[in-house]
């Protein structure tokens, strides 16, 4: 398992911060179904007050979300039988990829499709776009508890849930089966290459390393394209 | 202190059901007071620090149901505790051995109350009619201390 580092890329169009855990490739794995989704929005108030926020809507700041990305990788996605909340004891998948692109925190990973056929069934049966996502945070720091909208400046992701979008505190989340769109992968790939350079101390990549990077990019594109 | 003792004696003389009902009410009040205090303290502490232990980005009705479940669990625990206390009190209220002064026992035997396992109030009053008010109070106090009178 490889972990690619966190970095910050400020392109001409938008900024992207991303991280990924690369699992070994297993062709036709019967218990792995890729998923992707938008876990939350950053720097935007939630549509409704989240549970545990004492009736306050919340804003997860971009800085807090980016700082918490490492805690998100490897966390489970769970679901409640009524698709209306979290059930930490029904962990049906794992998050292997997370990136903040613009106002959206994208995630991707795998569902344990054979172990939890009901999740895949629900995804096939529900109307497109009906399912969303929800995070679970621990040790969140609120800038001002008396504020009408709580601003979360520090937090740790402890999990995520698949649920009906109207049950999520952020209405604009989504959850889909299948690998993320190419645009999203490209953003992450670009970041990963940049992160590699950062680890090398900002020095110019040698030709062999450039070749390695290109090979890795091609392998990733093939993986996600499947 | 005296008023509490008087209240307890009054409750004892009024009957076990009244005493249990009062104990239940007082326990329930104490439990709810503790819960309110705890919630207030937690709220104040977290408000000062700005820390929140757990937030879940699911809508509030889930929180309500979770809160309801938590309260139900607490209520069950409180009811169980009350039942335990009641059982404990009942076992304490039945002393293994009842000791009544010999003179009192003899006097009551003369009046026809030979067994002291259960003395009815009417029979006792009838038996004590020949005594003065102070003597009647003294006898009743002795019986109360011995646990003959409930």
Quaternary assembly: heterodimer
SSE order of chain B: HHEHHHH
| Tally of strands of chain A | 11
> Which structural class best describes the helix and strand composition of chain B?
mainly alpha
Low-pLDDT runs of chain A: 5-14, 183-206
Overall helicity of chain B: over 70%
The number of distinct β-strands of chain B equals 1
**Helix percentage of chain A:** 25-40%
Distance between the termini of chain A: 20 Å
Q: Strand percentage of chain A, roughly?
A: 35-45%
Q: Count the DSSP helices of chain B.
A: 6
Distance between the termini of chain B: 22 Å
Radius of gyration of chain A: 18 Å
Output mean pLDDT of chain B. 77
Strand content of chain B: under 5%
Low-confidence stretches of chain B: none
Form type of chain A: globular
Q: Characterize the largest beta sheet of chain B: strand count, sense, and whether it forms a barrel.
A: none
Written overview of the protein:
The complex is a heterodimer of chains A (about 230) and B (about 150). By secondary structure, chain A is α+β, with helices and mostly antiparallel strands. Chain A has helices spanning about 60-70, 115-125, 180-200, 205-225, and strands spanning about 1-5, 10, 15-20, 30-40, 55-60, 75-80, 90-100, 105-110, 130-140, 150-165, 175. Chain A is built from four helices and eleven strands, in the order βββββαβββαβββαα. The radius of gyration of chain B is 25 Å and the shape is rod-shaped. With about 150 residues, chain B is mainly alpha-helical. The interface of A and B includes residues 46, 49, 137, 155 and 166 of A.
Care to give the gist of this entry?
With 226 residues, chain A is of the alpha+beta class. Chain A has helices at 62-72, 117-125, 182-199, 207-225, and strands at 2-4, 9-10, 15-22, 32-41, 57-60, 76-79, 91-101, 104-112, 131-142, 149-164, 174-177. Chain A has four helices and eleven strands.
């Amino acid at each position: 398992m490889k972990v690619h580092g966190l970095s910050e890329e400020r392109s001409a169009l938008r900024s992207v911060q991303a991280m990924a855990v690369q699992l070994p490739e297993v062709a036709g794995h019967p218990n792995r179904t890729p998923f992707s989704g938008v876990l939350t929005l950053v720097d935007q108030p939630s549509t409704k007050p989240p549970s545990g926020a004492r009736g306050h809507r919340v804003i997860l700041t971009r800085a807090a979300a980016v700082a918490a990305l490492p805690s998100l990788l490897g966390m489970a996605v769970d679901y409640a039988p009524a698709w209306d909340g979290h059930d930490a004891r029904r962990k049906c998948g794992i998050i292997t990829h997370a990136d903040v692109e613009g106002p959206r925190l994208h995630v991707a990973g795998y569902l344990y499709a054979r172990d939890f056929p009901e999740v895949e069934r629900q995804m096939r049966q529900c109307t497109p776009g009906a399912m969303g996502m929800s995070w679970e945070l621990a040790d969140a720091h609120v800038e001002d508890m008396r504020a009408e909208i709580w601003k979360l400046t520090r937090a740790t992701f402890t999990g995520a849930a698949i649920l009906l979008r109207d049950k999520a505190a952020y209405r604009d989340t989504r959850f889909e089966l299948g690998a993320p769109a190419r645009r999203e992968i490209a953003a992450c790939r670009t970041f990963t290459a940049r992160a590699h350079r950062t680890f090398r101390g900002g020095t110019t990549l040698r030709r062999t390393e450039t070749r390695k990077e290109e090979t890795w990019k091609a392998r990733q594109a093939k993986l996600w394209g499947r | 202190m005296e008023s509490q003792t008087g209240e307890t004696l009054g409750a004892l003389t009024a009957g076990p059901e009244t005493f249990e009902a009062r104990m239940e009410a007082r326990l329930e009040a104490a439990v709810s007071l503790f819960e309110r205090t705890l919630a207030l303290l937690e709220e104040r502490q977290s408000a000062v620090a700005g820390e929140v232990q757990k937030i879940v980005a699911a809508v509030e009705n889930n929180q309500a149901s979770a809160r309801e479940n938590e309260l139900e669990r607490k209520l069950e625990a409180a009811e169980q505790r009350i039942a335990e206390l009641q059982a404990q009190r009942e076992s304490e209220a039945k002393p293994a051995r009842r000791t009544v002064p010999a003179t009192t026992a003899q006097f009551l035997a003369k009046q026809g109350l030979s067994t002291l396992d259960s003395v009815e109030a009417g029979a006792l009053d009838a038996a004590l009619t020949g005594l003065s008010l102070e003597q009647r109070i003294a006898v009743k106090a002795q019986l109360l201390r011995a646990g003959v009178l409930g």
